[in-house]
């Protein structure tokens, strides 16, 4: 490993980045999440890169039980729709994704079954994407999603579990009504937040870099 030339603890950073999981089954529904921890995590998130320094992200934090119940209803309907149209994953022998699919699916079902119990929901919002094409779609999302991931990392370091979902975009207009979003603003994801149960998180098996990265041009193997 190349030695670090900064004052950043590389080992601690790598541990945070490689063990921050999508937490669904291990969310603690019995403990309220202090708004102070969410504010701290958002303060970190707002340091994320944002294209053109636009900073047009906006964040809704939902803790009201009635609001959470309405959002949960939309989420469950979206999950059931997704579940009905998503084929069972089929990967080759030895592919770790084959072994991981059913546990992931089961944990997603668990979250859907208990969504209304999640004590806090953090919802990143952004202006409506212009209709000109994919450049604007990707650019707008690229201005917000790095901050969403930074929020999740900051939350993890404070003992909170999260997962990022986009299922409620299937009911975008309904969500806009629930959240009373102004015209021209939409939500781009939803992050359930709760303390997590258990003591630790571990790395998971991923496809090796050499199987998903190329050098200079497609299909030219990455060295290693």
What do you see in this structure?
The protein is α+β, with helices and mostly antiparallel strands. It has a single domain, classed as 3-Layer(aba) Sandwich (NADH Oxidase). Helix content is 42%, strand content 11%. It has eight helices and five strands; from the N terminus they run ααβααβααβαββα. Strands 1, 2, 3, 4 and 5 form a five-stranded antiparallel sheet that branches. Helix 2 crosses helix 6 and helix 3 runs antiparallel to helix 7. The protein is globular, with a radius of gyration of 19 Å. The two termini are 14 Å apart. The model has no long low-confidence stretch (mean pLDDT 92).
Query: How many helix segments?
Result: 8
Total tally of structural domains: 1
Q: Please provide the ordered H/E string of secondary-structure elements.
A: HHEHHEHHEHEEH
β content, as a range?
5-15%
CATH architectural grouping: 3-Layer(aba) Sandwich
Distance between the termini: 14 Å
**Average pLDDT reading:** 92
What is the share of helical residues? 40-55%
Any descriptors?
single chain, alpha+beta, five-stranded antiparallel beta sheet, 5 strands
